[in-house]
Structure formats: structure tokens, C-alpha cells
């Protein structure tokens, strides 16, 4: 650690010891109509505080501001007949051009009225149909916020109502299980894009495969989402890949303790409008083995993401995008039997995992104010996990998980702007579900493997939606839509209304109310669980469903402050449970080998309030404070109401950061960021010690499910960086540390064979990453 700080100060000295000329960068972008996607010519673009730097867009909606001194700016965009927009925290670099995609909403105000205030783009989502419980996640935040590790999933846990962990990045939204979140990339649902996804917990993993090098500004929705979002219960992570620079090539290479990261982008040829963008990462935890659990030392993973963007003169715009990852991990049994304490000490495990998504998109204008977007995509995810346990000189098989899921997706929607007051969007999607699944487990532990699922086949999920937005006046916006889906495997269907309204109470105050019925298909392996006679136990499982109701209050308290408060209620029903038991899928974590019959009679309810106070970056300083109070309850197969596994009761976050310009030309940047999370402790089921001692394995008092709670958790994360800007090249040195407070996370209980006791399984996982990045 001392060496890390020494390196930072050394490069700081080097960065400031040479006389350099004042450097500048370029801000480019495109301005379009939000509803129709048409470019807006002659829009005015002003750079603040350098008001003298202003320009207008050309006939294709493009603009260029150059040269611009390095630093942070606000960009104001306005056009006659449209509501203006204000972009804050725009970073201008000497090496990478800054590109903004600006969408403006047509105004319904009378022409004689004067618009005084421009809405801040960070305070509203990119999808204007989302009236509540939605926020833009910017690339700049993903790189800057402490605890993010350039991972959008970890960054999302800093938002109100979202729980966080160190050991995995499962997104717990308002007390819901991580598996209820939907991941979307380029408007297509994709499998969980995390490394080691679903191994320790469904819906979680170690690190998202999408780097901030390729990620564009995206939306994170936590409830009552618009009709275009289906097959999701708790939230939607709607991610976009940005387009590569079509003016000049740009590259970056990063070396760190956890691996290497290479990115490049640029035009296919000089003067062309098409571009490419790709990012490759290879990581290993071997260099951090002394700080990690023993079984993590052999962990290694890699991922690749790319996007090709090809506009044509008359044929519309084509895009080819992809994402892929591969993971390897495992452990070997302890050779010295005298050192065996826990079950895993005598186990051998190999884990191989992969995930991929490939899509071809096409967008074309139809008429003056409409466009058609069509995507053909294929996604795949697979897990190959084998566990053997040593008994004497033999290794006895304990479990086998072999699964491959391939989805073939056709998605198309038409967006039409009928007038400044009415916008409509209608879409359909067909997803072919191909699957290969083999799930086996030894029962009892020393016995032969029993097969619970062994299936190859094909099913289809069909869906459609229609949604309209009506701007009734300059103060009132009304939205209404409907979503429906149908699962061919068992004939289950769902029809889901979505409603929302927003009232501009005053120029800086808005109220919104949103309601929606939502549903989600369960993991496919549960539909194919077989009984001893070969019959399917759970073929007829219904969609798990939820009703959302959210009230949202927003206050733009000055140019750089924003306040949001959202009380909410969520009612869940048709939840899979086991009859006459406490078991419910609302607590599902990583139960692969479930072989009991399920019934869709479970219920749940989540209610609470989320509050956010945010100061946007100004004068080199920002902060954000979030707080949540909530209850998450469920009724299992016995009908008794209890706390869910994820009911922490409260969540709070404090983020702050400061940056300083340095160097004789003021071209270098120091950056320091801190995040502190204080949240309710993990819930767990108490141990039945008598039965545990008798069976020499942990047995829980299931009748008291999740009645116990650990003390509150305090998590701290720090990021320090120093960037040296040179002509056409930049060097960045960074130190990022997860869990500087040393919190010991809870992973359940383990039976200790040496002491004949039941021990809490808690680990202190501190992850430091010292890195160097060069951009050129």
C-alpha cells in the first residue's frame, strides 16, 4: 500500500515538473427530436461557463465545439419550439473527444411564453416514458464513484432503495431478490452479464462484463416501469453501448492488480460516418491471493464487448453488437486430513462458465415523425460445475450442474409522434428458448447421484406492448400502456396494464404517480423438475407477478441540487412455494437441486420510502446522500407472514468527491472519492443445534425462517486517481479499494468437524486495485 501511494506522488511530481502549453479538447454531438428521432437543425449549443463558446447544429443535427480548455462544463441546448436541456458534469479531455447525444422534447407551451429553466439531464431517465423510480446512470459516474470498480451493477447499489455487498454484486431492489431484475442491452433482454453469475446467488456475480470504456449512458428503473419493459419484477437495467468515434481513432490500455483492459474505437475509414468500438479484459486474482479466500486464488476470467455502427444514406442505420465472457475457477481438497475443519476442506470443485450475446439492429425512419427499430439477436449462457468430496482415498461425486440456455430473439417496435402532445410506441417480441439441463446431487452425501432434471428442448416466450404519452398541457403528462406475454411451455399468459401521470406543480417541483402490473418467468430448470416416476412436478408454474404503485416527488433545488422522495408499495402474488412450509421463491438464492413440487400460491409485500439528496459536480465538488426505510414480508406455503431474506429494513449511502486541476498549465487532474454505506444487517434462519450435532451438518429451524438479524453493516470504499494530460496522450494512475472498513460479510453457517461446533461463515473481503491507464 505504501508503494502505491509513493507511485502516485512520484507521477504527480513528474506530471507537474515539465512546462507544457495550454491544452484543449473537443465537444461534439447530435441533437434529435425525442419522439421521432429526427435531427434538429439550427439548435443552439452553449458551453458554460465559457458562454463565448457556442454553436448551432447543421442540417443533420450535428455540432462541434473546439478548441475547449480541459475541465468540466455544463452544456445548454435549446431550439425554437422545444424544451431546453442542460447537461452537467461534461468532461473535456485532451485525448478523447467528448460526444453528446441530445434529445429535446417538443414544447406545448404557447409561443409567447418564455421557458426559464432547463431540466438537468441527470435528474430524468433517458426513456421519457418512465415517470417514476428511474434514473440515468452515466459513464462518467461509473468511472468516478467510489465502490464502482467500473462496474455498473456496483454503481447502482449507491442509489436509493438498492442493497449492496462486497463479495457479489447482486442488485437487491426494495427488498426483492436479485433474480427478479432484468438485464437489457441494446433493447434486448440478455442473461445475467456478470462473471460467475448465479454460482453463489441467482442474479448476482463478481463483476459485470461491460466496462465503462464501451458503456453509454443507461437507465436504471426500480419500479412501475413503462409498458415496453416486460418479464421483470423488481427493476430493469437498460444498458446501452455507445457508438465509437467516427472522426479519429482513440485507444486505451489499463494495467492493474486484477488484470489488463484494452479498448479501441474509431472510423472504418477516414471521412466515413461508420465506426467501431471494442473492449477486452483479462483478469486474475492471483496477485491478490493473500487478501482473498483460499479458493479464489485460481480464479480467472475474461470478457469482450464491441459495437459496429453503420449509418447509410437511405437504408437507415445498422448496428452489430456483441458481449461475451468466460470464467474459470475451482478448488482442491486439503491434502492433510488433520486440517479438515469444514465440508469444503475435503471437496474438489471445478467451475466453467460462459455467456454471450450477439445482435444485429436496424433503425429506419418511416414518414416524417416515425421510425421502425428491429433487432435480431442470439444469447447464450452456460455453467459446468462438478463437485467431488474426498472419502478416504476416494473422491465421491456430490453434484453436477450442466446447463446451456440459448435464446433466439426477434424484436421490433414502431415509434410515432402524432403531435407535440401525443407520442405512441408499439412493439412485439418472440424469444425462442433452447435448453440443455442436467442437475444431479448425491442424496445422502455418500450415496449415488440422483437426477432431478435432465432435459433438452425448445419453448417460446411471446410478448407485445403498446404505450402512449399524452402531454395534456405544459403542466400535465398522462401515460397509458399495456403489456402481454405468453409462455408456450404451459400456456400461461399475462395481461398487464401500466398507467402514469406527472404534474408540474411549480417550475422546480413535480409530482408523479405510476402504477403497473408486472410478471416474470422463473428459471427454466424448475419447470423440468422430475419425480421418481419421471413426471414433471412443476410444469404448470405460473408467472410470478407483482403490482407496483409509486408516488414520486422531485425538486430541482437550484442549478446544482436535486431532491427526490418516493414512497412505494409492491404486492407480489402467484409466487412459487412448497405447500405447508416456510419456503418461498422470494428468498431464493442458489437452490439448484430443488426436487419438491411447487405451487403458485405464495404472496409478498414490499413497502417503504426512498429519499435522495444530490449535489451535482460544480467547482470540483459533488456529494449524494440516499436513505431508505422499508419492509419486505412474505407468506410461504404455510400462509404465515414473515420477513424475507432481503429485509434489511434500512439502507443509507453517502458519496462525495473532489477534484483539483494541477500542473503548470492546469492540465492535470487529481480526483478523490469516498462512499460510505450503512445498512441493516443480513437476515438468517436460526440453527437447530441439537439436530446439527446429531447429523454433523448444519440444520436450521425452518419454522423460524429469517427471524434473526445481524448487526448493521458499515461498508467504506475509496478511489484516488491522478491524470496527466499530454498532447494526444494521457496517463492515469489510480488506487481503488473496496471495503476499507474491513466488514466481514455473512455467508451462512458451517459445521466444524474438529471442534464439533457450528460456526458462522463470515469473511473479510478487501479488494485493492492499483492501476495505470494510458489513453492515446
Helix content: under 10%
Distance between the termini: 28 Å
Structural class: mainly beta
The biggest sheet amounts to:
22 strands, antiparallel, barrel
Portion in beta strands: over 45%
Using the CA coordinates, give the radius of gyration.
Answer: 26 Å
**Total number of β-strand segments?**
41
Shape: globular
Summed over residues and divided by their number, the pLDDT gives a mean of: 89
User: Total number of helical segments?
Assistant: 4
Low-confidence stretches: 1-20, 111-116
Overview features:
mainly beta, disordered N terminus, globular, 4 helices, single chain, 776 residues, 5-stranded mixed beta sheet
Topology:
Elements: H1 2-16, E1 24-33, E2 44-48, E3 54-56, E4 62-69, E5 71-78, E6 85-92, E7 98-104, E8 134-137, H2 139-144, H3 152-156, E9 162-163, E10 172-173, E11 181-185, E12 188-189, E13 218-221, E14 235-239, E15 250-256, E16 259-267, E17 275-284, E18 300-311, E19 317-331, E20 347-365, E21 370-391, E22 394-419, E23 422-442, E24 449-471, E25 476-487, E26 492-506, E27 509-520, E28 544-555, E29 561-577, E30 599-618, E31 621-635, E32 641-643, E33 650-662, E34 668-679, E35 683-684, H4 689-695, E36 708-709, E37 713-726, E38 729-738, E39 744-752, E40 757-764, E41 767-775
Parallel strand pairs: 1-7, 11-14
Antiparallel strand pairs: 1-4, 2-3, 2-5, 5-6, 8-13, 9-10, 11-12, 13-14, 15-16, 15-41, 16-17, 17-18, 18-19, 19-20, 20-21, 21-22, 22-23, 23-24, 24-25, 25-26, 26-27, 27-28, 28-29, 29-30, 30-31, 31-32, 31-33, 33-34, 34-37, 35-36, 37-38, 38-41, 39-40
